[in-house]
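Re: duplicated header lines in exported structure tokens

Our pipeline writes sequence and tokens for each protein into one text file. With two proteins the header for the second block appears twice in some exports. Here is an export where it did not happen, for reference. First protein block:
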Amino acid sequence: DHLTEVASSSTNSEREMKFRKILLDIAKKMGEDDLTSLKEQCWVQDFISKQDLEKKKTAFQVFQALCEQTIISVDNTETLEELLNDIKRKDLVKFVLPFSSKKC
């Protein structure tokens, strides 16, 4: 019914907001070298064009672009986890785990 849809919708938007905050928190913990590595991985894996990546000045902007292209999302974090592992930032994967799409 309509009330269930509304409740479900607000729960989804809460999860989305929490996910975006996690992306921001992860981005804040990343340095210039991490950003460079993240951009390289996104380009090598053909997620984002080199031209678009050059415009991204922060990791959060890269994450936003990945979200816009539905490469990562609140319900699809596997690629994000792989990217963080690829750039040798396994320590940041723990922040994504509450949203992990790799359910055991």
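Second protein block, exported in the same file:
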Amino acid sequence: MCFWSASTADADDTHARLLDDDVSTVTPDPAVAEFRREVLTRWPALGEMAEPWSPELGEPVTGPEGRESHYLLLNLSWDFDVDVVEQVCARATELGLVVHDPENEEEEEPPEPGFLGRLLGRSRK
């Protein structure tokens, strides 16, 4: 799952760029940094699944610093707590952030909803 505030590209392109450490299309926003801080404070275990790396995540360094206000990517496993996912998505929505499910990359409506859709009963992109 990936969260950001605003981008000059569509969601799939933005996500692909972020995976390549390219934040050129994403507008930094204090709300993203606030969201990240709240999520990692409330659920510290998500720090092991969070990108981009930042000093509060500790060692090892896995990427460039200073991108905490650009985006938050959470590499969640299938067995991750659905209630936590719902709460994380709800808070992101409250802050006006984009909630992107990278599994829904098809141009047409996929026959099966992505990760969020399966968890929440609908597709959110």
